[in-house]
Amino acid sequence: MLFVARFDRTNDAWKTSLLNDWLHGRDSGPVQFIRDRYGLQWLDTIQPSHLAAYDQDSRLLKVKVGDRLEVSSSLWEWVPATDTDNREWLTCTVIRVFESSDHERLHLNCTVRLVNGLEYDINGMYDWNRPNWRWP
User: Fold this and answer.
1) DSSP output for 38-63
2) Residue 104 per-residue DSSP state
3) How far is Cα 18 from Cα 112, in angstroms, rounded to an integer?
4) Contact by Cβ (8 Å): 97, 108
């Protein structure tokens, strides 16, 4: 995960870097074993949801513009937290990421666009709204 986090901090694509190393015959350091053991086809199957399983605190894998997420209908309609049967999950794309402050700490927020064109702001992505979105 540290390899991925290093690239996320600079908004570079870790898969692209690994693939470029592969194509140019360069050593990929601590992740060389991925190329040697699993191959190019495996690399292509890795999605953010797979990495999120190893990032329980969401410290390494941050939402970026262009990411695809699923959001819960409880963002715009009242659904009791215990009523998981009536939650609807919809696919969307992140179109904006921004920060806000409550004078004590910074909060990451984003704007998502649903397939039908509607847009919603999700405030406190990693704070109070974390249960209302997930990686597909």
Assistant:
1) THHHHHHH--HHHHHTT-TTSSS---
2) S
3) 29
4) yes
Domain definitions of the chain by residue range: 2-46, 68-134
Torsion angle, CA of 55/60/62/68, rounded to 10 degrees?
-50
Q: Are 58 and 1 in contact (CB under 8 A)?
A: no
Give pLDDT tens digits along the chain (136 positions): 566 666 655 555 677 777 777 777 888 777 778 778 887 777 777 766 566 555 555 544 678 899 999 999 888 888 776 777 778 899 999 999 999 888 888 888 999 999 999 999 999 988 888 888 887 8
Dihedral angle over CA of 61, 67, 70, 71, nearest 10:
90
